[in-house]
Design brief:
InterPro entries: Biotin_BS (IPR001882), Biotin_lipoyl (IPR000089), CT_A_B (IPR003778), CT_C_D (IPR003833), Cyclophilin-like_dom_sf (IPR029000), PxpB (IPR010016), Single_hybrid_motif (IPR011053). This is Lipoyl-binding domain-containing protein. It comes from Plectus sambesii. GO terms for molecular function: ATP binding; hydrolase activity. Pfam families: Biotin_lipoyl, CT_A_B, CT_C_D. The chain has twelve helices and 29 strands. The chain is α+β, with helices and mostly antiparallel strands and about 575 residues long. It is globular and about 85 Å long. It folds into three domains: about 230 residues, Beta Barrel (Cyclophilin); about 230 residues, Cyclophilin-like (Cyclophilin); about 110 residues, RNA polymerase II/Efflux pump adaptor protein, barrel-sandwich hybrid domain (OB fold (Dihydrolipoamide Acetyltransferase, E2P)), CATH 2.40.50. The strands form seven sheets. Strands 12, 13, 14, 16, 17, 19, 20 and 21 form an eight-stranded mixed beta sheet that branches. The protein has a five-stranded antiparallel beta sheet with strand order 7-8-9-11-10, covered by helices on one side. The chain starts with 8 loop residues before the first strand and ends with a helix.
Length: about 575
Amino acid sequence: VHYNSNRLGVRLIGPKPTWTRTDGGEAGLHPSNVHDCEYAIGTVNFTGDMPVILTQDGPSLGGFVCLVTIAKAELWKVGQVKPGDTIRFVPISFDEAVEMEKRQKAIIETLTCPDVTKKLSTTAINWALTASDNGQSAAILATIPKSASSPQVVYRQAGDKYILIEYGPAILDLNLRFQVHALMEALQSSPVSGILELSPGVRSLQIHYDSLIIGQQELLKKLVTLERQLPPVASMKVKSRVVHLPMVFEDSATLDAVARYRQSVRDTAPWLPSNTEFIRRINGLDSVQQVRDIIYKTSYMVLGLGDVYLGAPCAVPVDPRHRLLTSKYNPARTYTAEGTVGIGGIYMCIYGMDSPGGYQLVGRTLPIWNKFLKNKIFSDGKPWLLRFFDQVRFYPVEEVRLEEMRSAFRDGRESIEITEEVFDLAEYNAFLESIAPELDSFKRKQQAAFEVEVAHWKIDEAKLTTNDSTNDLSQQQNGTVEKDQGMPVAADISGNVWKLAAKPGDRVKTGDTLLILEAMKMEFSVAAPCDGILGNFLCRAGTQVQAGDILVSVIEHSDLSSEKQLKTADHMLHGKEIDRHQIVGRT
């Protein structure tokens, strides 16, 4: 269990996975990158090569692949782990998961102890890891073949409480999103008992249901039957609001998030030190100014919400000639400022809260989540600003002005321009045909630049694997703190050294901050235990430490009276010009 774990997600450290593909195509450089994936509670999500158990407060939608999902009856165990613990996953079948939940529910309702002699076996390999007779993965529950008027539909297992429905090939096609919308509207107009929530993405719809109310096979039959009854979407029209938002390109908060990533997670990567320069290279553009210009002229259509948290949009440029292709961070950031605008794959996201994230960061805009509904723009009692099929258009402002607007918008003293129009899918498809030659040229140039960047990325990933083993304190310490070298200061928790707040030789007082650790997406100050002179640090920014590791020492003033201890103090000052008699005088 990684030190950066909390109610949003539990990061895991383990063997680097072997992937069956080299990259994510349009979705990004890394093979873990996908166009969209709705996230079940308890799913194991690979943010690059690092797995994360997504928990109760985690994201509902994102662009990383999910491989397995923890059964609901077993989720309580995730709340018991701490950094440094070891987790082992054991495969069980869907039927076993449901039976475990029934037993757990009975125990809670009757307040009786379970019969340990009837414990379910969780060690047998089951159908979820084997192939069915037709060679398909047994994780695929059903498939509807492609027809002249509708795409292929695949129904996937997504744990014991979810079914994931995917439409068509793994490409961005607004026609597929309209197919998702058609099914969602049908389910909302004719509710199915047991369905708890519908979560749409770019080309998929996740069904969250109670498997104790409606069985998986019964629900599957209803979904397949309903799908076959849907009319073609070729002539569908939807209401679309155009939402105009101010944005500062490469503001200070955005650059700070990148700097923190370099300091505490990873110092080198194709997207470092500048995300926008990376976007320029991977798209074959001549300058970062071109990146800026494209972002400001683009109309981004919102296809999903909750990417990553609190109503954050998963939005795509309506005009495919404006689709900047990027990759997501590997591993993901532990911090992104609320209101930050990012691009991952070909999708735009606005972060609704301070949170982890993986998109390339380009700027900052207004808060899109209004907790106390102080602004009338947030209507119908909903604290999120954007809706499905909204079109977001950014315009430039200065950073000082944006800060004023952010505060006023949050309090309801600032409004934004919103207009309404109708988005006609037939007209849009005709538009795509009219720009086909130009679009083909744009994609070929983009693909050539992408392939060059993939080659650079593979070299950098090899370096990352080599350097990972030397980033912990045990690899960096060259000695220990002896008794006569002062009072040792140890880490109270496992974490990462984010910042050294003092220097060897500094005079410190009890309670002064010596360094700051980062853990569980929070910062923890390590304070001086006494007055004295600060000794050598046994760590540096970016060092991973465990609880109990000695980080630094402090020579107490009361210990500075003897000649031997004065020499020790002088040694720890590393040649710093200071009169030792001043030290004695202070004592």
